[in-house]
Amino acid sequence: MSNQTIIVLDFGGQYKELIARRVRECKVYSQILPSSAPIGKIREAKPIGLILTGGPNSVYEAGSPKCDPAILELGIPVLGICYGMQAMCHALGGKIEPCEVSEYGRTQAMVDPSCPIFDGLQTDQAVLMSHTDGVTEIPAGFVHAARTANCANAALYDPERKLYAVQFHPEVESTPNGTKMIRSFLYRVCGAAGDYDMSDYEARQIASIREQVGGDKVLLGLSGGVDSSVCAALLAKAIPGQLYCIFVDHGLMRKNEGNEVEAAFRHRALNFIRVNAEDRFLDALKGVTEPEKKRKIIGKLFVEVFREEAAKLGDAKYLAQGTIYPDVIESGAWNSAVIKSHHNVGGLPEELGFKGLVEPLRGLFKDEVRALGRQLKLPKPLVMRQPFPGPGLAVRVLGEVTREKLAILRESDAIFREELRRTRCRANQYFAVLTDMRSVGVVGDFRTYDYTVALRAVVTGDFMTAEFAEIPYRVLGRVSSRIVNEVDGVGRVVYDITGKPPATIEWE
After folding, report:
1. Which superfamily is assigned to 5-189 in CATH?
2. Strand ranges across the sheet with 217-221
């Protein structure tokens, strides 16, 4: 690894990958390690700086995540964020106590522009606060750099040791100048050269894939989504002729999507294999209503179907997956809480009999995956395809999954997506959900008792946080009218106006 490196030490915060992504956006390579990482491992990476993440615990409680205090004596700059600030100050003799007034959400802070990380910024800054504890006594050598109405120590720094700490989250979009703050830490404090970009990532991964795989065959489950498609393109470039792409059509895709996937890859330099397994998946899901159980059933059956196809090829040694960072964080990596499990996270299933697992996108966010796809010259419609869950429409059909429900959802979803594309409403992801709720309606002189369809559209840059899209009423009205008139079985349409958090983007 020849690039300059920033180590992000994870204390269990939900935004650790987002911090790493912000660093990479600033053209500096980042690597995430758990907070318990031994100092020897940190030294091996030869980082130009460290960032300590937030976390859900109180630093003064027994068993709360800690790091080796010696990292603060390495002579390299350190930035502590939220819990990371408290962990730094606690280790250096400061005092951390519960706040008299907790702060959540966007807050106005007064920052000191003479502090290097606030260089060039106005004194008044909007920042995202999310804390119930705060630093009440600062360690020796530190000076104040920011405050809010309820937090006297919103930012601190020790200019001699180049230790910086902020109580707020500069990595999120709700802190408008947060990336500038991180950039100032990287360039003004750490002396970054800015020697990392996606071409570096591509080159490193190609070298890594070739070293890992050698001359062996590799199998990839190709769904046609952005992640698996970019993974396929990268693998094909790294090991041309050795890649076999198996498209397991589980019957849970959007309208016409299975045929579109086959058409997109049939004539490419890939060994494309389509398996029509709709009946098997629907039989396995019969009577199942709990979302995590659906995911596990689909994941297990996917492995079975994939294993059967792999056996036909005989000598494939490696399994490739388009796993990306959000999959890992939501599945509970390291100290993080499990939000929802992803069937492509958790290591290599022993029963598959493969020699190893190839995951070249595991360190990337969705927008970075798209950037890599453009770099690999994939078609724009494929690169910009919206995120789609691995279990497909099974987690957008609430309750039991049936052919009837899937047909209703496909048509409703197609209408919604068609109207939003046509009107060019601003939304990064949008789809329909078939709820398990029926409601009374009237068609002509007859009473109906049909399903309720929920529409979901969000605006987001990182998919870690999101706001609902403010779609004009006239557009929502047209979508609703079309769905209830054109789709048999739908009697009511509602629009989801919940952000992430507290909700996830998907309903299940």
Report:
1. Class I glutamine amidotransferase (GATase) domain (3.40.50.880)
2. 271-276, 243-249, 217-221, 316-320, 356-358
Q: For residue range 394-441, list pLDDT tens digits in order.
A: 999 999 999 999 999 999 999 999 999 999 888 989 999 999 999 888
**Per-residue pLDDT tens for 210-247?**
999 999 999 998 888 889 999 998 998 999 989 999 99
Buried b (16+ CB within 10 A) or exposed e, 422-448: eeebebbbbbbbbbeeeeeeeeeeeeb
pTM tops 0.70: no
Dig out the tokens for 269 from the structure: 């330099």
Please answer whether residues 76 and 97 qualify as being in contact, where contact means their C-beta atoms are separated by less than 8 angstroms. Answer: no
Count of residues making up the chain:
508
Give residue 41's pLDDT: 92
**Domain assignments of the chain as residue spans, ordered by start:** 5-189, 198-383, 404-495
As given in the structure block, the two tokens for residue 33 are 């390690």
CA distance 121 to 486: 54
| pLDDT classification of 346: cutoffs 50, 70, 90 | very low
User: Do the Cβ atoms of 183 and 191 come closer than 8 Å?
Assistant: no
Whole-number pLDDT of residue 336: 44
H or E segment and range at residue 43: helix 39-45
Q: Residue type for 313, please?
A: L
Q: Please name the residue ranges forming H helices in 333-435.
A: 366-375, 380-383, 403-423
| Residues carrying an active site annotation | 82, 169, 171
The yes-or-no answer to whether 5-189 and 198-383 have a common fold is yes
CATH architecture under which domain 404-495 falls: 2-Layer Sandwich (3.30)
Mean per-residue pLDDT for 345-352? Answer: 51
The answer, yes or no, to whether residue 501 has pLDDT greater than 50, is yes
What is the third-level CATH fold of 198-383?
Rossmann fold (3.40.50)
Q: Residues with Cβ < 8 Å from 263, sequence gap 6 or more?
A: none
Give ∠ CA 250-275-243 in degrees, rounded to 5.
115
Whether the CB-CB separation of 411 and 299 falls below 8 Å is answered with no
